[in-house]
């Protein structure tokens, strides 16, 4: 059973920045991610991958439309 205190995280993509690039970030800066816009996002509960889906806009807010639930066995292998 899930605890109500486990964080839910949605990962859209990742990138690496050099230490000297971080201070250059400002409001309006664009950070390029390692994924294309049409790729799936991953949904994690605590550190466990639980689902994949697509980013959607619902009522002016960003959300996730779940397209796949990751079975427990596959989830356990990916997080070890």
Quick gist of this model?
The chain has 80 residues and is mainly beta. It contains one helix and four strands; from the N terminus they run E-E-E-E-H.
* Average residue pLDDT: 83
Shape-level CATH architecture of the domain at 1-12 and 34-75? Roll
Radius of gyration in whole Å, from Cα?
15 Å
Shape: globular
Q: How many strands, what sense, and barrel or not for the largest sheet?
A: 4 strands, antiparallel
- Low-pLDDT segments: none
What is the CATH C-level name of the domain at 1-12 and 34-75? Mainly Beta
What is the helical fraction, as a range of percent?
A: under 10%
Order of strands, widest sheet: 1-2-3-4
Q: Report, as a whole number of angstroms, the end-to-end distance.
A: 20 Å
